[in-house]
Amino acid sequence: MKPGQADAFEAAAAQAVAGSRAETGVLHYDLWRETDGERRYVFNELYTDEAAIEAHRGSDHYKAFGMAARDLAAGRPEIHVLSAIDVAD
Amino acid sequence: MKPGQADAFEAAAAQAVAGSRAETGVLHYDLWRETDGERRYVFNELYTDEAAIEAHRGSDHYKAFGMAARDLAAGRPEIHVLSAIDVAD
């Protein structure tokens, strides 16, 4: 995160979180932040299937957040793809 | 993870997940696994407060899993402490 941009980032993220949770294919869409070190933000997202991921990426709130975050973030997002082994709904 | 130990690890983890979810101070206790690369396992845990974390660490299932995982894992766990910015219950 660029210095001083946390509040703006969280405001933009709140829009993305609300919009994403309303999507039928989204099971989890949560925002966390590291408490120390680089204090990176972490989105934890769970989708019903690949089609739901595609639908999410096509959504207005996803695109709007992508543009906003580009100006606020200090670097590109790091994406880790995980499968749910034992994840509660 | 040491080669060939994924099933044993997931069996031991299932015990820890079940026991942890039964703890009053545990809100989230989920197990994920990277789909590629090192294929690391990721526990995503959310507690009500510091006392709940301490209670968790004192539990029999936590200790039992720690011993089992030590023999199965290829290295020490990497712990990232995050605060919930916008996390659904």
From TrEMBL, chains A, B:
Source taxon at top rank: Bacteria
Key words, A-Z: Monooxygenase, Oxidoreductase
InterPro entries: ABM_dom (IPR007138), AI-2_Isomerase_LsrG (IPR050744), Dimeric_a/b-barrel (IPR011008)
Domain called ABM: residue spans: 1-81
Statement: the UniProt record of this protein carries the keyword Coiled coil: no
Protein's UniProt keywords contain Oxidoreductase: yes
Single GO MF annotation: monooxygenase activity
Pfam families given in the database record: ABM (PF03992)
PROSITE patterns attached to this UniProt entry: ABM
Protein name: Antibiotic biosynthesis monooxygenase
Native source species: Sphingomonas aliaeris
